Amino acid sequence: MFIGGLLATLGWGWPFILYLVAWLLLAMQILFIPEPSAEHSKPASVQGENIAIEGAGKLKIVYFAAAFSMICFFTGVIIIPQHFHKMSIGAAETGYFLSFISLVAVFAAALMPRIVARIGEYSTLYAAFICYTCAHLLFSAASGIPLFVTGGVLMGCGFGLSVPLVNHMTVEQSHAQVRGRNLAYLSMAIFSGQFMSSFMEFIPGSSSVVFIGAGLIGVIVIIALMLFRRKHRGAIV
């Protein structure tokens, strides 16, 4: 805070600190992250390409889950402030509530590896979208803060159990020679889902109807994941 105040006094302000942190992270990357070995920098072999092609089908469902996880999550982020405004809840309280959801997501992400070890990757994804569905249905029916808090816990769990997991699944199911490309595709799916969530606002009706729509999306994703898992039962966890 002292440094920030000093920089603000000098006319630099907080943007300068952000740029300074970026340069610091760049220096840490150069100093501490080793260069890839010559083995990994070679062009992909025929075997590597075959493995990449075999894994491409599995990753489509991972990208699908990533995109729709972001749709479910950011629909809440977009619609909750509008709903709270109608309930005469101030901007500060709305911000605290959204921060609370993010905090729950942090704890859920920390628990995710243990849950995956116990019930498997796809069952964890089911649980994540069940949390999303229940959260949005609670939001649609809520008339007071207690139900919103419960829904917020569920929505944070949905995010924490799904987004870190799809990142892990992409890494695990990608050959080393195409892992970077597949992670880039995953990023595209995540940001596409975040973008597409903005169109949920155009669903006709009140914010409660939008919440119900997001809940139905969660149900559709669960069904799609189950159908995919049944089709590839012998090849996936």
Please describe what this structure looks like.
The longest helix has 41 residues, at 46-86. The protein is mainly alpha-helical. The chain has helices at 2-9, 13-32, 38-41, 46-86, 91-119, 121-141, 145-172, 179-196, 207-231.
Briefly summarize what is shown.
This protein is mainly alpha-helical and 237 residues long.
What is the CATH superfamily classification of the largest domain? MFS general substrate transporter like domains
Give the SSE order as H and E letters: HHHHHHHHH
Mean pLDDT: 83
User: Radius of gyration, Cα only, in angstroms?
Assistant: 21 Å
Q: How many structural units, i.e. domains?
A: 2
Tell me the number of strands. 0
Please give the share of residues in helix. over 70%
Q: What is the third-level CATH name, the topology of the largest domain?
A: Growth Hormone, Chain: A
Measured distance between first and last alpha carbons: 48 Å
How many strands, what sense, and barrel or not for the largest sheet? none
Write the layout of secondary structure elements.
Blueprint: H1 2-9, H2 13-32, H3 38-41, H4 46-86, H5 91-119, H6 121-141, H7 145-172, H8 179-196, H9 207-231
Helix pairs in contact: 1-2, 4-5, 4-6, 4-7, 4-8, 4-9, 5-6, 5-7, 6-7, 6-9, 7-8
Attribute tags:
globular; 237 residues; single chain; mainly alpha; 2 domains; Growth Hormone, Chain: A; disordered N terminus
